[in-house]
Amino acid sequence: MFTGIVEELGEIVAAEPGESGTRLTVRGPLVVSDAAEGDSIAVNGVCLTVTGTAGDTFTVDVVPETLSRTSLRDATVVNLERAATPHTRLGGHLVQGHVDGVGTLLERTPEAVLRIGLPAELSRYLVDKGSVTVDGISLTVVAAGPDSFTVALIPTTLARTTLGSTPIGGPVNLEVDVIAKYVERLLRQGR
């Protein structure tokens, strides 16, 4: 479980394809400082398991399913967050690190409002002033539409996360609020 509060920008320094997926080596001095094999680290919002550490880098194995359903395949600079602990402040919202789909950055206004396109099947989980995770960043939805939504970013978020440099047309990992998904399922079963 994560909070969606990015701790640092990291860099994917190596990607080694293998039989059962790809091994990524990620540079992230802060998140690796207390990381151990088996720990979870969110990389652009994708919960990955640490398989080793060396200096200021850690390695993770990414299965083909994850590569096909996220934007990790083409990522170089990534948002990093260590898993929450019982003593972590929950400054964002409950984030699982399970990407629901890949969206597209459609527009960035001078006021730092971003419009992000999303797969139609995810739009029902977004509401104005609700929570959404974009590349691992906990954000508040300004306006939710049928095929896109907007978020407003503060200068700190622009400076300390990948969203400050994501190009128009660039992919972003999306995770909708898990509570909305559970409510929908419970309501469907109650029919």
Automatic annotation (TrEMBL):
<dbReference type="InterPro" id="IPR001783">
    <property type="entry name" value="Lumazine-bd"/>
</dbReference>
<comment type="pathway">
    <text>Cofactor biosynthesis; riboflavin biosynthesis; riboflavin from 2-hydroxy-3-oxobutyl phosphate and 5-amino-6-(D-ribitylamino)uracil: step 2/2.</text>
</comment>
<keyword id="KW-0686">Riboflavin biosynthesis</keyword>
<dbReference type="GO" id="GO:0004746">
    <property type="term" value="F:riboflavin synthase activity"/>
</dbReference>
<keyword id="KW-0808">Transferase</keyword>
<keyword id="KW-0677">Repeat</keyword>
<dbReference type="Pfam" id="PF00677">
    <property type="entry name" value="Lum_binding"/>
</dbReference>
<comment type="function">
    <text>Catalyzes the dismutation of two molecules of 6,7-dimethyl-8-ribityllumazine, resulting in the formation of riboflavin and 5-amino-6-(D-ribitylamino)uracil.</text>
</comment>
<comment type="subunit">
    <text>Homotrimer.</text>
</comment>
<dbReference type="GO" id="GO:0009231">
    <property type="term" value="P:riboflavin biosynthetic process"/>
</dbReference>
<dbReference type="InterPro" id="IPR026017">
    <property type="entry name" value="Lumazine-bd_dom"/>
</dbReference>
<protein>
    <recommendedName>
        <fullName>Riboflavin synthase</fullName>
        <ecNumber>2.5.1.9</ecNumber>
    </recommendedName>
</protein>
<feature type="domain" description="Lumazine-binding">
    <location>
        <begin position="1"/>
        <end position="93"/>
    </location>
</feature>
<feature type="repeat" description="Lumazine-binding">
    <location>
        <begin position="94"/>
        <end position="187"/>
    </location>
</feature>
<feature type="domain" description="Lumazine-binding">
    <location>
        <begin position="94"/>
        <end position="187"/>
    </location>
</feature>
<dbReference type="InterPro" id="IPR017938">
    <property type="entry name" value="Riboflavin_synthase-like_b-brl"/>
</dbReference>
<feature type="repeat" description="Lumazine-binding">
    <location>
        <begin position="1"/>
        <end position="93"/>
    </location>
</feature>
<dbReference type="InterPro" id="IPR023366">
    <property type="entry name" value="ATP_synth_asu-like_sf"/>
</dbReference>
